[in-house]
Design brief:
By secondary structure, the protein is of the alpha+beta class. It has one helix at residues 17-31; strands at 4-13, 35-47, 53-65.
Length: 68
């Protein structure tokens, strides 16, 4: 039987939501062992004074299996 844990991270990218998700999952896998999945809980954009998007942000829930 395996036991999994879920942790929440925030990742950002100046290019796209997809890029933010990829960067977030790759970074999580560097620190957490046995990363199995992730899902986007929310998305947000940051913009400058003119309304131009400067950053895409995602809140990710990352699931990883605990070692015995």
């Amino acid at each position: 039987m395996s036991v999994a844990r879920v942790t929440e991270i925030i990742a950002s990218s100046p290019q796209s939501f997809e890029d933010a998700v990829e960067k977030g999952m790759q970074r999580a896998a560097k620190t957490l062992k046995n990363v199995r999945s992730g899902w986007v809980e929310s998305q947000k954009v940051m913009c400058d004074d003119n309304g131009n998007i400067t950053e895409f942000r995602v809140n990710l829930k990352v699931t990883f299996v605990l070692q015995d």
